[in-house]
Design goal:
This protein is of the alpha+beta class and 183 residues long. 29% of the residues lie in helices and 34% in strands. The model has no long low-confidence stretch (mean pLDDT 94).
Length: 183
């Protein structure tokens, strides 16, 4: 089987996070506009270093684990975000998450990156279903998921605790047959 640790599209390359990404990863993940839609309380170089180290031996599709790719814009060879795929214990279902630096948003880079991960999930990994959860105030993420064919499955009220407050969570899902039907 081809390694899924590196995936390439027309404008982005998904690759393992590297120690050279530390400053950029910490910078965009700690940006207030990015962090307000995420579950972490704060993000600094220590957290970035821990994620990079944790992902060093990670492979996509390992049941019970997340695999996080760095999203690199091909033209600049710069890290512009990261995208993760959690594989459930059954190995047939997963959850996707993504974070993009503010200076890279609005250009379709995250859509391309998430699409590459879905191709891997529904192709070589053989997933049946992929879910995504977002902050109800994160309209851009919801729009990205809709563009890729995810269906909105509902909202859980005050189901996630973020920075000391209970907040709602929007649920989206996509089945392999729905992904393949997109052509």
């Amino acid at each position: 089987m081809t390694s899924l640790t590196r995936l390439a599209g027309a404008r982005v390359r998904l690759r393992p996070l590297a120690p050279t990404d530390l400053d950029r990863l910490a910078a965009y993940r700690s940006d207030p506009e990015v962090a307000r839609h995420q579950a972490w309380d704060s993000y600094d170089a220590t957290a970035a270093s821990a994620l990079i180290a944790e992902m060093a031996d990670s492979t996509p599709g390992c049941p019970g684990h997340w695999h996080q790719w760095g999203i690199e814009e091909i033209t600049s060879a710069q890290l512009v975000g990261d995208c993760g795929l959690f594989t459930r214990e059954d190995g047939a279902q997963g959850e996707i998450g993504f974070t993009l630096a503010p200076d890279a948003q609005g250009r379709g880079l995250a859509t391309e990156a998430v699409s590459l991960v879905l191709q891997a999930a529904f192709g070589p990994l053989g997933f049946h279903r992929v879910v995504a959860n977002t902050d109800p105030l994160n309209a851009r993420s919801a729009a990205l998921l809709a563009r890729l064919g995810f269906r909105h499955e509902g909202r859980s009220i005050e189901s996630v605790r973020i920075r000391g407050a209970w907040v709602d969570d929007e649920h989206f899902a996509l089945l392999a047959r729905e992904w393949r039907a997109r052509g």
